[in-house]
Each structure stands twice: as C-alpha cells, then as structure tokens.
DNA sequence: AAAAAGATGCAACAATATTGCATTTTGTGT
DNA sequence: ACACAAAATGCAATATTGTTGCATCTTTTT
C-alpha cells in the first residue's frame, strides 16, 4: 500500500486525490515546501483554497509542521513519527541553504537546551541555521 | 542629542521625520514590532510604502534585524551594537509569549553551538523559544 | 444503495507587498 | 543663506497571499 494512503488512514482523514498528491510531494521532497511550491507544481491542479486547507489539515493532524522563516512565507515539512496531533515535537534544527535556498530538516540534530532568565517558561524551541548545504559546497 | 538622531547619523542616513519616528518606536518598544504594529500606531501617519522602505533601509544598515516566525509576518527588532551593515549578529534567542504574543529579544542568552552533519557549513543561527513570559505567568 | 459527513471549487473579499513616477524634502558646496 | 544634486516620500496601480461562505461533488458510514 502506498505510504501516503497509510498516513492518511492512520490519521483518520478521508483519502482524496488532492491529499494524496500533496502528501506525495512532501514524501518525495528533499526539503521543506512553501505553499507556492505546491501550487506551482504542474502535477497539482487544485484550487489555491484546497491547498491552503489541506496544509492546514495536515498541520492540525501532526503530519507536517511549520518552519519559521524571515521572509514572509510559511514553510512546511513532514513531521517524524514523534509528532502527535496538536502537539508538535519538531524540535530539530532546520537548515536553510543561502545558495540553493532549500530548507532541510535535520532530524538527527536536536536543539540544545538554553537557560532562560527567571520567569520565562519555555514550551517549544525552534532553531534555524543558515549556511551552505552539502550539495552546494565546492 | 536624541538617540534616534545619533543612530541615523552614525549610519549615514539622511534624517527625516519618518525615520526618526519609526526608530523611536523601536527604541521605546519592549519587544519586536511587525509592519502592522508600526502602521497602526497612531503617531505614525506615513504611507505604507514608506514604512516598508524604511524598515528595509534599517535592515540593510544593521539597525534592525528580522526575526523568524511561523505565522506569515515579519518581525523586526533593534540590533545591538555588534551588528554591522550587511552582516547581522543577531545570534540571540527570541522569546515569543504564547499568551500576550509579544516577541522579546533575549540579548543575554546566546545561541548554543550545534554540531551539523558533515558537509553543512553554518553561517548564521537563530533560535526561537515559545512559552510564557515573565509578565504573563501567575 | 442511501444518508450523513466531509472535501472541493468558485466567487468575492481582505490583507499584504512591490514598482514606477512625480513631488517634496534633505544634504552638500558655495 | 541659496541653489543644486541626491535622496525620501506619496500616490496610483498592480501583484501576491490568505480567508470566508456557499453550492456541489466525493468519501465514508450504515
């Protein structure tokens, strides 16, 4: 059985052509995807609204997570199995290549703890490293 | 002499009413500001475009820096004196309060180093902690 | 197979961001 | 202080991005 199908069923989502297609994009992608990446993809011919709603649904169900960026786009990437609905554990490092512009999830690299000033109570931590990725160094 | 004036002069920027006003907002602000915060501020009555261009100018000159977020807004905050034009050193932790929604720069908390996989060359690191801030805990 | 629940498309709208150009303001040299 | 050059601003137009309501179609359930 296809992986995208498995994932959708596991999360109790009705399986539709659109969801499978978009989920496959993530499964195939090396790095993170923006809404525009999906919309521009020739194999996806859905309404913009459907893409928005699908990404929202996937996020709500812990299938994908959002990645913070400094340009005004939201990036999405597949969650690993540790994520639960409504409570993401995407506490791994995200690497953004300044050359090829790809964003890569480094699941092996966990975010180190930081000591915060008194009175500040951390719930979730994200870390973004900009640099040159493995493919772009020469 | 006013601080905003000093900063503008130091960076070789022509000093205008708009730039002073916006810079003062940052100097007064506790946390980071979004474009909309500035535009909505009653004491600012400039064209949206001017605000965009001013923020861009300040960013280019290392006066303010951008903060990554997962909602699709760009946040800006004052750089400390270590920042140079074109090369930001905003390697401090940003704290986003999930209650009051303020974003605070924790200049005292430096971002710890992480070991990246072979072939990945880091240039800049950012870290975002979500949680409850000092004002909102009870 | 029918009913219920859910997903999708469309249209309208809202918010956000960008660009070119004319006008005004600021900085510079005298 | 004045005139000129350089830079900033405002306005209009346009592009991009995100949201909502509702009718229609598809999937799931019984």
Structural descriptors:
homodimer; 138 residues; alpha+beta; Arc Repressor Mutant, subunit A; 4 helices
Describe the protein:
- The structure is a homodimer of 138-residue chains.
- The first copy, chain A, is 28% helix and 26% strand.
- By secondary structure, the first copy, chain A, is of the alpha+beta class.
- Chain A has one domain (3-131): Winged helix-like DNA-binding domain superfamily/Winged helix DNA-binding domain (Arc Repressor Mutant, subunit A, Orthogonal Bundle), CATH 1.10.10.10.
- In chain A, helix 1 crosses helix 2.
- The first copy, chain A, binds a DNA duplex (30 and 30 nucleotides) through residues 14-19, 35-36, 46-50, 52-54, 57, 72-73.
The CATH architecture of chain A would be Orthogonal Bundle
- Helix share bin of chain A: 25-40%
Number of strands of chain A: 6
Please identify the oligomeric state: homodimer
Topology of this structure?
2 copies of one chain form a homodimer.
Chain A: H1 3-10, H2 17-28, E1 33-34, H3 35-40, H4 48-60, E2 64-67, E3 75-78, E4 92-97, E5 103-110, E6 121-132
Helix pairs in contact in A: 1-2
Chain A binds a DNA duplex (30 and 30 nucleotides) through residues 14-19, 35-36, 46-50, 52-54, 57, 72-73.
């Amino acid at each position: 059985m296809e992986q995208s199908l498995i994932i959708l069923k596991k999360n109790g989502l009705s399986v539709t052509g659109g969801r499978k297609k978009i989920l496959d994009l993530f499964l195939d992608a090396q790095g993170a995807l923006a809404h525009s990446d999906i919309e521009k993809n020739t194999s996806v011919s859905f309404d913009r609204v459907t893409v928005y709603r699908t990404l929202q649904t996937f996020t709500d169900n812990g299938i994908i997570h959002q990645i913070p960026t400094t340009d005004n786009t939201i990036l999405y990437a597949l969650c690993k199995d540790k994520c639960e609905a409504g409570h993401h554990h995407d506490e791994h490092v995200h690497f953004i290549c300044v050359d090829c512009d790809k964003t890569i999830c480094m699941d092996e690299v966990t975010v180190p703890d930081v000591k915060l000033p008194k009175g500040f109570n951390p719930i979730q931590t994200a870390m973004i490293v900009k640099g040159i990725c493995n493919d772009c160094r020469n």
